[in-house]
Amino acid sequence: TQLLEQSPQFLSIQEGENLTVYCNSSSVFSSLQWYRQEPGEGPVLLVTVVTGGEVKKLKRLTFQFGDARKDSSLHITAAQPGDTGLYLCALLSGGFKTIFGAGTRLFVKA
Amino acid sequence: GAVVSQHPSRVICKSGTSVKIECRSLDFQATTMFWYRQFPKQSLMLMATSNEGSKATYEQGVEKDKFLINHASLTLSTLTVTSAHPEDSSFYICSARTLSAELYHFGPGTRLLVL
User: Fold this and answer.
1) b/e code B59-93 from CB counts within 10 Å (16+ = b)
2) Closest residue of A to B112, CA-based?
């Protein structure tokens, strides 16, 4: 059983469209992280959300942590081909081990 | 620039041979390093936690005798895949935690292909 459920698993959209990916769990977390991974590379940390209801923005990316700290979303505005990649949410298990969700594979067509 | 390096970046070996992968923290010390495995079109799965100077802690289902981990210094951890088989072909990624435990840095990964 996955501790973190991500949806959708795969998303293919046209350049310029908006999209939202979700990360859900039945557990409450002290924090949650979002990573992006390009093919053949390691994941890169995008953001860490800590406070319930928190919203963080990174250029065209908006991250939200649910009020109950059991879910999070990533919204991308006006997607570009450079946004193509695997988006992973993650948590620190036991306070020190990074555990990843199954990921959302995004493909943005020019 | 990269703060965690892995060597080699890709390796092809024959079935039955052993392969060593290095993970180095370049400009910081890491008491704890982590090893992940990622199969095509899947997420990263934690294999083991490596602590400097002590035995690694393996996740459930990971064979410790097959995946030997050594963390001899604060900047180097190695993963040795012993008697590799085609099903061990995967993308292996390490991460390192800073001493302050505030930051985790991931390496660029090593692609292993066992023929």
Assistant:
1) beebeeeebbbebeebbbbbbebeebeeebbbbbb
2) A40
pLDDT recorded at residue B72: 83
- Measure the CA–CA gap between B4 and B75, rounded to whole angstroms: 9
Q: Is B16 helix (H, G, I), strand (E, B) or coil?
A: coil
User: Which residues of B fall within a CB distance of 8 Å from A48?
Assistant: none
Q: Cβ of B106 and A97 within 8 Å? A: no
User: Tens digits of per-residue pLDDT, B58-73?
Assistant: 999 999 999 999 998 9
Answer whether A97 touches B (CB < 8 Å): yes
- pLDDT tens per residue, range B27-80: 888 889 999 999 998 999 999 999 888 889 999 999 999 999 999 899 999 999
Residue among B44, B45, B46 minimizing CB distance to A43: B44
